């Protein structure tokens, strides 16, 4: 009966959402595919082996599943893993990361779609990344004896607590959170919010953030040099990267860049918007300021040229020209891309392809992490930290509040409060490269101190399956299984 009532509620909400969806499909060119799967018509999983279904909404959540999938494969090798996603970017990332696994769209929360999807996948357990909880899905899974856990769990005060705390939703939310088998929260603040929303206290555990486990500590990324060669990024000159930017940020960042350029001192600047539907918009913003926009999509990887790569100001430098003397190269009339330079027109490298953000970060001398100058919750800080980049970010990092706090406290990043501070902070990184490298080293130390959340999360998965996988004595699952030895199979 409850599922039927929810279906009745969902129908008018779907009608109200339809104009927004049509705008997304026609104008923004997203959400066009996968609708058959969203109604539960997912390819039937072959075989009878046990299965773990992992769901991640979008690109960031899908990227965070990599360490989780690897850990499950190591400790539960008999279990098949399937992956679902909601957004176009998340689905594309899942296909890229897991070409040998079944990847599909997460079903809508209509009862018929959920029943059909669960019947076709036949999971033994479902892991929802962060906070993708829906009442019909959770209730149907519980009735079928399917364990449902929340991994990397977080509940924001500004959005989730306010939404679930509304009188008309509060009672529904409490029943929904009570249906969750276990929750692996990123920190105690999030754990307390899960409990306040109705999750039983003994099912909520603080495990840390799994994104630390996916932050590979390395100095380079496969394909970064090929990207530099293709775009004409001169690795001998400073490069500032603004990654995962959001609406309203690029204009502020371009203004900061113009402050830093001065008389064109060889600075290179790259912008990588978070959403692919904004690539053309950002290209227009760059060109409207009289800057050259060099798009990654128009410069695919090529065999490395014999000649030295051109500098970002549209000039090339001969071996005899000092790297800090762009004016000398310009006066010498060197050619770039087959044309004679008639002036020093700064180039902005636009990352308008998917899955290459880490390549840009690996080439960077200084990084601004986007979606933080405007209230969008911030973007992943851990992968920047793992690469040892000197970074700054804005005041709006609610989605990564604990990470941001640790980085700032360790003097491993700088948080700016206004857009006007960005140019000064980035310039400081470039003017003191040794100090910038030391800051990057401290950021890596923060990553090292916080690893292990993935293993603790798989402990909870094993416990919910009634299994005792090979894990250390101090793990969550070992302690609980000792208290209830009869649950060990």
What would your notes on this structure say?
- With 489 residues, the chain is α/β, with parallel strands linked by helices.
- The chain has 2 domains: 24-215 and 451-487, Rossmann fold; 224-449, Glycogen Phosphorylase B (Rossmann fold), CATH 3.40.50.2000.
- The chain is built from 21 helices and 16 strands.
- The strands form 3 sheets. Strands 3-2-1-4-5-6-7 form a 7-stranded parallel sheet, sandwiched between helices. Strands 10-13-9-8-14-15-16 form a 7-stranded parallel sheet, sandwiched between helices. A two-stranded antiparallel ribbon has the order 11-12.
- It is globular and about 70 Å long.
- The chain starts with a helix and ends in a 6-residue tail after the last helix.
- The relative contact order is 0.11.
What's a quick, concise take on this entry?
This protein is an alpha/beta fold and 489 residues long. The chain has helices at 2-26, 35-38, 59-75, 88-97, 111-121, 135-143, 157-164, 167-178, 188-196, 211-214, 224-231, 250-261, 279-288, 326-331, 357-363, 382-386, 401-409, 422-431, 433-449, 453-464, 476-483; strands spanning 51-56, 80-85, 103-105, 125-129, 147-153, 182-185, 204-206, 239-245, 268-273, 292-295, 335-336, 339-340, 347-350, 366-369, 391-393, 414-415.
